[in-house]
Amino acid sequence: MSKIRKVIKFHCNGKSNLFISKYLSLSRNTVKKYISLFKVSGYRLDYIAEKTDAELEAIFVGNTAEQVNPKLEKLYSFFPQMERQLKSVGATVQQQWELYFAANPDGVRSSQFRVHFKNWSNRVNPVMHIQHKSGDKMYVDYAGKKLSIVDENTGEIKEVEFFVAILGASQYTYGEGSMSQQKEDFVNSVENAMRYFGGTPAAIVPDNLKSAVIKSSRFEPTINETLADLAEHYETTILPARVYKPRDKSLVEGAVKILYRRIYVHLKNRTFFNLEQLNEAIWELLDLHNRKKLTGRPYSRYELFLEDEKDKLRPLPLERFQIKYHSFATVMQNGHVLNSQDKNYYSVPYQYIRKKVKLLYTQSVVEVYYKYNRIAIHQRSNKAYVYTTNAEHLASTHQFVADWSATRFIDWANSIDPCVGEFIIKIIENRNHPEQAFKSCLGVLTFEKKVGRIRLINACKRALDFKIYNFKTIQNILENNLDSIDEDKDLNQDLPEHQNIRGKNYYE
Q1: Which pLDDT score is estimated for 194?
Q2: Could you please report the per-residue DSSP string of 175-192?
Q3: Between 2-12 and 17-24, two packed helices, what is the crossing angle to 10 degrees?
Q4: In angstroms, rounded to a whole number, what is the distance separating the alpha carbons of residues 346 and 368?
Q5: Are 445 and 416 in contact (CB under 8 A)?
Q6: How far apart are CA 266 and CA 259, in angstroms?
Q7: Domain named Integrase catalytic: which ranges (predicted)?
Q8: With CB atoms 3.0 to 4.6 Å apart as the test, which of 38, 312, 344, 426 could cross-link to 134 if both were Cys?
């Protein structure tokens, strides 16, 4: 205020504006402004000298001239609608000035138009300096202050992260509680935000947290693979904010500050026992926030979103994104790979035996890749130590083994002879598990090609008489030609009489 007094004093003493500007280190426009306001006020120098600093501020800094000037009133009333139009792709400040000047021929020129718009924009929202296009970017971040829930059984207080997403053009905001900032929770929150907005933006702008960016860089940051998969699923892209460049994400940081006042205050004295209860309360307060009129504007975030931005978002895919996990494994000799997380085995084509492959799996599907080519896909099994096999993947010999079953061996044996079928049934029944008997059954039935059908039938008949049911019994009968003995011959016939036979008296 002392400089204002000196400007007026020098002016009344006949000093030039240039002298006053250089002597007091003020711009010539500022000097001209103070002198003009002094002349308009009609006050004398001694009256100004008696005024306090607060009274001088009301006269010279209180923007009274702008409020009185009808030309500036028209100009500033044009800016809210102009700001909305600038969010459309292709809209420029020059085009808006031409529209303004066509309706107000006595209005300000292009250069002054830009200066006044910049001043108005800074006063209405001093943080936002970037002109955001509708449907272009969605900014995401976590709030510094955490919320909490209480375990109903133990009474333990668990901290909860607060996730915030905001659309650049309309400032339409989404928030939710999340148990952590790990990539699974982060990706799920980003997807929930897009589902809340009902569309996909052209780009997602996260901070440089590890769940989003593995390695930061000014020119080409390395995006977390899971977040990149999400972007591919929703046909969008990831544009991480630059490190130590807070203006890149100033919009979402400003939203976080506002939500501290409009959400945290109402939740801090309430108790929630699970994440669902907390989020329901957050979304109720969030709806009030989005429907509240913006500062200095006759519309709310929600109205701006519906009118200007909703139709610019891309349609959502029908299916939600499923997080993909990956691991590496070597194909075993039996043509299967191990998913180490579930301890399950999945088949691949036999040509890839002993090859190193990559497994990509979601909650429902397991995919196997070799050198970027998918070679197998299976439904994911939740049971440990289970083999999931596609018969087409197996070699011909393996396919034969894969088709082994008790029914198949019994039908095969009955096609030779009913007694062979009966013997095979006995082998299977005398094992704890049918599969234990399959090799024995196979060995018995292959004797048909080695010794012929008749000999195998006779061997099975004799083995049934012995009541010994295994492969070894049939093998011994055939090797010792016991199958060829005539069963009708009397094995108990009397021995012939001759001198070498001792009588019963010999043993008395």
Answers
A1: 93
A2: EEEES--SHHHHHHHHHH
A3: 150
A4: 9
A5: yes
A6: 10
A7: 122-325
A8: 312
Sign of the dihedral through C-alpha 359, 360, 362, 367? negative
pLDDT value of residue 191: 92
Q: What is the DSSP string of 45-87?
A: HHHHHHS-HHHHHHHHTS-HHHHH-HHHHHHHHHHHHHHHHTT
Q: What is the dihedral of CA 49, 51, 53, 56, to 10 degrees?
A: -100
**Beta bridge partners of residue 165, listed in sequence order:** 140, 174
- Strand, helix or coil at 356? strand
Q: What is the pLDDT of residue 18?
A: 86
Q: What angle do CA 295, 297, 298 make, to 5 degrees?
A: 125
Give the residues of the chain that fall short of pLDDT 70.
Answer: 1-2, 40-43, 50-69, 87-90, 122-131, 210-212, 214-223, 242-252, 296, 394-404, 432-436, 485-508
Give me the half-sphere count of Cα atoms (radius 13 Å) on the Cβ side of residue 98: 5
137-312: CATH, from 3.40.50.300, 3.40.30.10, 3.30.420.10, 1.10.3080.10: 3.30.420.10
Cβ-proximal residues to 485 (8 Å cutoff; 6+ apart), any chain = none
370 in helix, strand or coil? strand
| Amino acid (one-letter) located at 196 | Y
According to DSSP, residue 339 is labeled E
Neighbours of 356 (CB within 10 A): 12
- Give the DSSP letter string of 211-262: TTEEE--SS--EE-HHHHHHHHHTT-EE-PPPTT-GGGGHHHHHHHHHHIII
Q: Write the pLDDT tens digit of every residue in 130-155.
A: 567 788 888 888 888 888 899 888 88
Enumerate the β-bridge partners of residue 59: none
* Residue 9 amino acid letter: K
Strand 203-205 relative to strand 237-238: parallel, antiparallel, unpaired? parallel
Evaluate whether 423 touches 460 at the Cβ level (below 8 Å): yes
Residues, the chain, total? 508
**Domain coordinates of the chain in residue numbers?**
2-66, 70-122, 137-312, 325-391, 404-484
Which pair of tokens denotes residue 246? Answer: 């807070």
Q: Are 200 and 235 in contact (CB under 8 A)?
A: yes
Who's near 111: CB < 8 A, 6+ residues apart?
Answer: none
Helical axes 53-60 vs 28-41, angle rounded to 10°? 100
What is the reported pTM?
A: 0.52
Cα distance between the two ends of the chain: 152
